[in-house]
């Protein structure tokens, strides 16, 4: 494990040294952030492992370990966003119907954008699994229980999961950054669109949007993205089970005879079982988790200094300690409550409570934690995500290019669908 943390440290440091890179694209531009460099470098290390010196090789066992570290490390980012949300709850509540109804875009946008493309490309029932959601772990469980992972629907949701794992953060960051640069959407509408229900994808999309805003607006972007992601995470499983999946099955029955006729059948390669088994990450004890959180926070402070120019003085270290403390308390409550609610919910609630107006010392806590940029904490998380990617590539290659295109359309749909609805409610037509 020590070699894994050393590699993550090197990746984070190099990514932050590269910094933000803007690429002009017509009237818009693409912003490549340190978190994307970290993801790409981590993935490159894993793919190049057979050709690297032994000291730099990343064996499959460490790739699985990086994947297991990813989820607890993500809680630091969740805590930071919760701390941002708490002080801005009055502003979030003022968004009203925009925040409420944009969730329909998240849950139906995947199907609206993805299903027609899937049928035009000749996919059959694989299209249902690939387009009824963004294909995170709850979606795998829903499809596995309803159809089985060896079914066409199972192959579709597995392709969506692997595409999101391997390319999701890069794709959504590039798309979000490009759309933001066009200036046609309110940044807060785009922020709500970024809350797709995946922590790493939300971090990447919100970062790309925030990088093009003023410092004050960047904080609001992070706040609204966190609020949207929390809603998507907490009600997403029930929404996809009882609304999104039945609606997608119905839409498939209506559209397939029209768009799919004469298009042929998709590849029927069996879905590999290894990636599915890998979803059950090894359980860490609380001492090991604390070490993971401390290391991730330390990596975040490196980026906070290199990219955002904030030296790790006493106030910054206090802010980091508060973030780690919120995560520890959230994890303890999660376990005491019998794991009935996701840990991200507990951590988010604690973060919001600490900075909610009226909470004792809320202003001091907000000041200390506010000196740590949320994007600095996202970079080490994406580094661990990158270091875990190579293990999924063999299965990914067997799933075919058409279903990858469909997955991109579904990911674009959940972002754009929510952003469009939020934009409408924030700026209704006259």
UniProtKB/TrEMBL annotation:
Keywords: Membrane, Transmembrane, Transmembrane helix. The chain crosses the membrane at residues 31-50, 62-84, 104-123, 161-185, 235-255, 276-302, 314-334, 365-387, 399-426. The keyword Membrane applies. This is Branched-chain amino acid ABC transporter permease. It comes from Methylobacterium tarhaniae.
């Amino acid at each position: 494990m020590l070699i894994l943390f050393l590699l993550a440290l090197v990746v984070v440091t190099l990514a932050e040294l590269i910094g933000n890179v803007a690429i002009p694209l017509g009237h818009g531009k693409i912003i490549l952030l340190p978190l994307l460099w970290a993801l790409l470098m981590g993935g490159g290390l894993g793919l190049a492992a057979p050709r690297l010196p032994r000291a730099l090789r990343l064996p499959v066992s460490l790739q699985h370990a990086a994947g297991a570290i990813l989820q607890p490390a993500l809680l630091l980012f969740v805590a930071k966003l919760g701390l941002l949300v708490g002080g801005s709850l009055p502003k979030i509540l003022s968004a009203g119907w925009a925040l409420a109804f944009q969730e329909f875009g998240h849950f139906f946008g995947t199907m609206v954008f993805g299903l027609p493309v899937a049928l035009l490309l000749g996919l059959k029932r694989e299209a249902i699994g690939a387009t009824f959601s963004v294909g995170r772990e709850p979606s795998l469980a829903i499809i596995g229980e309803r159809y089985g992972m060896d079914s066409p629907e199972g192959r579709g949701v597995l392709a969506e999961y692997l595409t999101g794992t391997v390319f999701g953060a890069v794709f959504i960051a590039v798309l979000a950054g490009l759309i933001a640069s066009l200036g046609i959407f309110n940044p807060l509408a785009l922020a709500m669109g970024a809350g797709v229900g995946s922590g790493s994808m939300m971090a990447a999309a919100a970062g790309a949007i925030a990088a093009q805003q003023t410092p004050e607006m960047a904080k609001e972007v992070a706040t609204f993205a966190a609020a949207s992601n929390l809603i998507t995470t907490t009600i997403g499983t029930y929404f996809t089970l009882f609304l999104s999946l039945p609606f997608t099955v119905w839409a498939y029955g209506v559209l397939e005879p029209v768009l799919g006729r004469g298009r042929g059948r998709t590849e029927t390669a069996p879905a590999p079982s290894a990636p599915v088994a890998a979803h059950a990450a090894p359980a860490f004890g609380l001492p090991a988790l604390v070490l993971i959180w401390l290391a991730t926070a330390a990596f975040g402070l490196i980026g906070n200094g290199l990219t955002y120019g904030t030296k790790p003085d006493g106030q910054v270290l206090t802010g980091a300690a508060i973030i780690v403390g919120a995560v520890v308390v959230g994890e303890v409550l999660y376990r005491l409550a019998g794991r009935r609610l996701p840990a991200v919910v507990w951590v988010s609630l604690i973060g919001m409570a600490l900075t909610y107006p009226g909470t004792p010392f809320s202003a001091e806590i907000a000041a200390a934690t506010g000196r740590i940029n949320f994007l600095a904490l996202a970079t080490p998380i994406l580094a661990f995500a990158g270091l875990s990617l190579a293990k999924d590539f063999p299965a990914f290659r067997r799933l075919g290019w058409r279903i990858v295109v469909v997955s991109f359309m579904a990911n674009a749909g959940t972002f754009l669908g929510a952003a469009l609805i939020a934009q409408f409610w924030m700026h209704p037509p006259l």
